[in-house]
Amino acid sequence: MRAGVGVFAIVAGLALATSASATESTIYPGVGIGRVKLGMTVAQVKHSLGRDYVVNTRDNGYLELGWNFGSSTVGFKSSRAVLVSTTVYAQRTAAGAGPGALWLRVVHAYPGGRCTFNYVNYFWRVEYLVPHRGGTQTLFAFREVYNRVKAKLTGYSVLEVSVRTPYERLPEFAPGWRDQCATGWANTAVPRLKQG
Q1: Positions of the chain with pLDDT lower than 70, given as ranges
Q2: 10 Å Cβ neighbour count for 182?
Q3: pTM attached to this predicted model
Q4: What backbone torsions phi and psi does residue 20 show, to the nearest 5 degrees?
Q5: Could you tell me which residues come within 8 angstroms of residue 137 by beta carbon, excluding any fewer than 6 positions away?
Q6: What is the pLDDT at residue 196?
Q7: What CA–CA distance (Å, rounded) separates 27 from 36?
Q8: Which domains does the chain have, with CATH numbers?
């Protein structure tokens, strides 16, 4: 009986170890997320994330695949990964920035980025773009956090993290974008739209 329990424990442990390595959770700013790195081929990404995916987009040489109901996505140009995104709360950078992290934690962990507002799917969201050596970028998209009792906006938390190459321009970060963040955005929990 004890030998059977021991064998079961070993098999269960191996299964958990395999599962944990398949979903390695570290976000590497400017490099990739988990075992998926920018520059990987479609075949390499499918090997890392599995073949249980859906095609999100296929347009003008751009292919985007989604895993786990879209919680992980990878975009390809010329069959190489140019975008790796996650909405999984367990995935974080070494500094603790990832889905669910609050605005100031991200901005203080990765200073030197750019802040803007973007109107997406009928909602305003704050975005923070961090450039890296070699030209890659990490984009943090935030959602609003409310105090439901007071019906008051109290901050922003990360909704999605995307590690990307500049394969396409992000117009919301272009000079002259009308919906920029107001002065002082790096030192407040609730950044505001720049007026005028």
Answers
A1: 1-23, 196
A2: 13
A3: 0.86
A4: -65, -40
A5: 30, 129, 130, 131, 163, 164, 165, 166
A6: 64
A7: 10
A8: 26-187 (2.60.460.10)
